Amino acid sequence: MESFRVHILGCGSALPTLRHNPSSQLVEIRGKVFMVDCGEGTQIQLRRSRTHFGKIKAVFISHLHGDHCFGLLGMISTFGMLGRTAPLHVYATAEFEPMFQAQMEMFCQGLEFDVIFHPVDTTLPQIIYEDHSLTVETIPLDHRIACCGYLFREKSSLPHIRRDMIDFYHIPISQINNIKNGADWVTTEGEVIANSRLTSAAEAPRSYAYCSDTRYMPTLHRLVKGVTVLYHESTYTTEYARHASLYYHSTAAQAAQVARDAQVGELVLGHYSARFEDESVLLSEARAVFDHTILSNEGLVIDVG
Fold it and tell me: Which member of 37, 67, 164, 303 is catalytic?
C-alpha cells in the first residue's frame, strides 16, 4: 500500500508558547506532499521533519488568522533562495489574493517559479483539487471569519490480479489491464472465467479530514462521515465551553462527538489553548466520548489507515 501520512508541524493556537508551534501540517499521499496551514515557524519545523522543501506541491490555508498563515510568505521566499523551479499552488479565501499579491511584489520578486493562487469558497463543500489518485474537498466550518477545513480522499484503486489464476489459465500479459478494468476471460475451449475469480479486491480508499478552527457544528459529522483519520480542533475543555462558544472554537468533548457521530477511524486533537500545560486533560475528556483519540504534537507522524 502506498504511503499516506500526516506530519504535524504545529498544533498550538494563536498565543505563542514554548511547547507548541502555530498550526501547520504536511499531508503526504502517494508520493505527493501538500501543506495545510502555515503558521509562523513552519520553515523551521519543515527542517526538523527532514522534508525536502521542493516536494511541497500546494498549500491549503484554512482561514486568515495569523496563526494559520503568517509563515506563508517567508516560506515562499525561502523556496526562491533554494532555487525552486516547480510551480507552487496556494489555496485560500478570495479576499486574501490582493494582499498576497502585494506582499509577493514587495518581498518575493525574481522567483524562478510560479506561485498560482486559487480562491476558495468556504461556504460549501466542493472539490478544489483533483488528480488521477486523489481529491481535496473543502469542509465549511463555523468560525469568526470565513474558514474551511480540507478533506483529502484517495480514489479507488483497481483490483489486484491473482497471479495464480493468470498462470493457471495462461492469460497473456496483454490482457492484464482489461481484467483489472473488469473483463472476464474466455478460454480456448469457450469457458468464461468470471472476473471475480481472476482478481482480489483493492484496499479501501483512505481519507483524512482537517478541521480547524470551528465552533461545534452538530451537522459536521455528515461531511466527514467514515473518514479514516479526523483532525479536529480541541482548543478547550468543557470547563471553558463558554469561551469556546464565544470565540468560535470547540472543546475536546465536542470534537469527540463529531468523531463518534461520523464513525471515523481515529480522532486527532489539536489547536490547544495556551492555558493548558498538560494536554492530557483534553485527551481524557475526548476519550470519554470517543475512545480512538490521540493528541497531536510537533514531530508526530500519523499513518492514515
Answer: 67
